[in-house]
Amino acid sequence: MNFKGDIITPIELRHILHQNPELSFHEIETTKLLTEVISKLPGSSILKIHTPMKTGLLVEYKVNKNNFLLFRADIDALPIIEENQIDFRSQNSNMHACGHDVHASILFSFLEYVLENNIQQNILFLFQPAEESGGGAMEFFKSRIFEKFKISNAFALHVSDEYSAGVIASTKGVLFASSLEVDINFNGVSAHVAFPQAGKNAFNALRLFLDSVDKLPGNISEPFIFGVGRIESGEIRNIIPGNSRLEGTIRGLSISQVNLFYKKLVDILEGVCQITGVNYKVVKGASYPEVIIDYNLFEKIVPAISTEFNFIDCGYKMTGEDFGYISHQYPSFMFWLGTNYGEKFGLHNPRFLPDDSIIEIGKKAFVSILKTIM
Are 173 and 253 in contact (CB under 8 A)? Predict the structure, then answer.
């Protein structure tokens, strides 16, 4: 990445990250860059940088024997080709289309503030890999690095152009849904369309599966989503497809609800297999528990932060976020940070592009939370 070794500003960091996006668990250069720029901050000699995994880093700021506060930002990107025509446009086929470049730059700016002001509070700054896929938060827990610290609370934010710039939105209890990625492969037998009896149509099995899922009775008292974002099948127009595949996600307000629905999907697949003779294989992808906002933290933080920001109680969202792992370990507070100055594209859109000014706003939000908790 293009870094000359001098101290850089959070905005400059954001531009470098945005130009060089890396996918989940491949954030090698991102990790190197963050390690280097953090190590060059004035006062950084007090810091300890932990790298228990190949990507991502945990920065320890310790000034006393008390507990730590954990502030987290994610650093991975998405396999999306950027459509923004800007000077710091992505230089590869990936994109920070979910704002993680902004998240990392906010946390860097906040770290800079803590050092400059000699804050008398132990803090961990987690630059976490693989939020988009692979459960990077859980992998960090598996490394057992957090066992070295007494962590009392955890905090995070996520940018969104659903809200006007500077708006902070959160809620008590479940903020983001539990999610489970599911890939289902249907394996049949190819045959010429003129001789369908010689084959086992995998695409028909996929269609039967989806039709059966649509007929499942819904629970009107609790929101739930089974979404399919990709389907592929067949190779040529006159051959019955012997293989079909779908990629989907399950979303609910609790991991137990998600797991229960997964079992229903498997039951349906068994029935489809018996009817069509087509076999199936289910591959589970990333699984995130719901993000839970601690009631006590909410009651303490919101009145204070509302004096500086426009706060909205947004209720739950069906967004999946692996900060859920962290919120199940420590009392936590996470929030949306609005970025909308008039244009709205939504997350994971090739034109999603928060303004650089959001970095300073996000830093001020973290500072406000820190002052309230200390």
Answer: no
- Over the chain (374 residues), the average pLDDT of each successive run of 10 is 78 98 98 97 97 98 98 98 98 98 98 98 98 92 97 98 98 96 97 95 97 83 87 96 97 92 95 96 92 98 97 95 96 98 96 98 98 96
Strands 173-187 vs 279-288: parallel, antiparallel or unpaired? antiparallel
All domains in the chain, ordered by first residue: 10-171+314-373 (3.40.630.10), 178-287 (3.30.70.360)
DSSP character at residue 341: S
Active centre residues (catalytic): 74, 132
Q: Tokens 């190590």, residue? A: 39
Quick one: three-class SS letters along 119-138? CCCEEEEEEECCCCCCCHHH
Q: What is the pTM of this model?
A: 0.93
CB 335 within 8 A of CB 157: yes
State the burial class of residue 117 (Cβ atoms within 10 Å of its Cβ: 0-12, 13-18, 19+). Answer: exposed
| Angle subtended at Cα 320 by Cα 83 and Cα 359, rounded to the nearest 5 degrees | 55
Give exposure, 246-257, as e/b (b: 16+ Cβ within 10 Å).
bbbbbbbbebeb
